[in-house]
Amino acid sequence: MASLQLRRESSMDQQESPRSPEAKLGMKVEDLWGVQEPKLSPNEKLNACFESIPVSAFPLAPQGIEIKSDASLAEAVQILAQNKILSAPVVDVNAPEDATWIDRYIGIVEFAGIAIWILQQSEPPSPRSPSSPSGTYFAVSINGMTSAVGLGTLGPEDASITSGDFFEALTSSKFYKNTKVRDISGTFRWAPFLALQKSNSFLTMLLLLSKYKMKSVPVVDLGDGKINNIITQSAVIHMLAECTGFHWFESWGTKKLSEIGLPTMSPKEIIKVHEDQPVLQAFKLMRKNRIGGVPVVESGGKKAIGNISLRDVQFLLTAPEIYRDYRSITAKNFLIAVKNYLEKHDKRSPMLSGTVTCKRDKTIKELIQTLDSEKIHRMYVVDDDGNLEGVITLRDIISRLVHEPHGYFGDFFDGVLPLPENCRV
């Protein structure tokens, strides 16, 4: 009873003075929560609340960065890295001034798409394809990249293909500098991309970010034909972290991970890379399994010594000189080199926090607060001995917040799904 009273008082304090735009949004959910039918389950109540709030109510992200379709990959990487963002919409430079949003944008370019391009460049050429003077293999067709067959599994014996000068050769190549963003449109997640209107509901947005695996959702203004906001999984987690104290959040957030079925995988299902494998193997696994990151595990053991995510490809592209002295760029060498680089250039980077782990008895609220404060996208679940037991991503958390009602989307995806044949992300 005392605990319930404390939560009510905390909620009342926030209603009097929301500490942030996200908390103000949480207050709207709180008001709706209180008038829902008593017979509804807590999960059904949350669904009803989020269905009643338009996506336009979500706090605006900082001024959006757009990349022109005729920008080179090198320029796109610099823009993403300098602005510390993982993706950006691509504007068609040939679109007329009065173009609608669907004609103005050709998609969203991500570090994920660029990582895929890198993997394609590292594959051996066919007998008809000449190799470059640097010895690095490239497969580029007149319309962009040709399809790739994959690198296979890379082990310690494959160190020669990822020697320290591998990425210096790649980033100094004319292919990397001259290939345009529009040329890798096949690596975009959607074609052109899936966007919401301001009137669409919060529930729609949350389902796209969870069940439908979108990392970000653009919100367009039909009036001026431009993107008004971009809502990411991280932004949703930050919103939830700001809603601590509200009754609707506490009723869900105080549950333990095991109570809501997290993590969703068994230890044997964890996709990982060993510390002595080439770092390209980590990115290959992410590409093949369509995931955003993998743990780096000690050789012959089950303990994680670090994490490599798709966004970390920026360190291979923007600072390749930090690997110059390595005979091979193993996963462990990659982690060490990046850590040394960040200690000199960006001491606030999440990568300097080391591997962040938790146990199954952690609450969803505690997990959200840690993910938000550490600015990370996944948490590794370990046992009492520190051995990996599972992985929990931002998408996993959002998927436990809402569910898709039967027939909810109707014909919403017409013209969008299935994904185009050349989409690899």
From TrEMBL:
Compositionally biased intervals (Basic and acidic residues): 1-11
Gene3D superfamilies: CBS-domain
Classification via Pfam families: CBS (PF00571)
UniProt keyword Repeat, yes or no: yes
Annotated region (Disordered), positions in chain: 1-26
Occurrences of domain CBS (ranges): 60-126, 265-326, 351-409
UniProt keywords, alphabetically: CBS domain, Repeat
This protein's name: CBS domain-containing protein
Lineage: Eukaryota, Viridiplantae, Streptophyta, Embryophyta, Tracheophyta
